[in-house]
Write a structure and sequence with these properties.
two-stranded antiparallel sheet; 142 residues; 4 strands; CBS-domain; single chain; elongated; alpha+beta
């Protein structure tokens, strides 16, 4: 089971953000994508942060009270996101996800450039497929 890799289940086309993007625009992208968050990338596609719905919620609430907003992504993003490598084990990621907060992890190459993201749903799919494959294989020889 350790052989199930992140690379096999990651989303190669995640929603991404630029650090100077206005929060309102970022929220719109999140809503349209259906993702709960996404990486903040620079011009070279290096991951420099992560923006989640939770990060946006506080600023949007403040903007509602003040009836204006001047915030950009860099004001609220997590500037030290937890990133994964494509060769990481799905089982280890699943174990990590049971204990830590992020629901979505950026997946990066050796230079820190974004390859995609992996979410809890992607991990569940990988585990479910693996269990079904093993079950089917076990019943073929009965």
């Amino acid at each position: 089971m350790q052989s199930i890799r992140v690379a096999d289940y990651l989303n190669h086309r995640p929603v991404t953000f630029k650090q100077d993007m206005r929060i309102e625009s970022a929220v719109e992208k999140l809503i349209l994508s259906g993702q709960s968050g996404g990486p903040v990338i620079d011009a070279q596609r290096k991951v420099i942060g992560f923006l989640s719905e939770q990060d946006c919620l506080k600023k949007m609430l403040e903007a509602t009270y003040q009836n204006e907003s001047h915030s950009v992504v860099s004001d609220v993003m997590n500037s030290e996101p937890l990133c994964l490598k494509p060769e990481d084990s799905i089982v280890q990621v699943a174990d990590r996800m049971t204990c830590t907060k992020p629901k979505v992890y950026p997946v990066i190459d050796e230079e820190g450039r974004l390859l995609g993201v992996i979410s809890r749903a992607n991990v569940l799919l990988a585990l479910d497929k693996h269990l079904h494959d093993n079950y089917e294989a076990g019943h073929r020889y009965v």
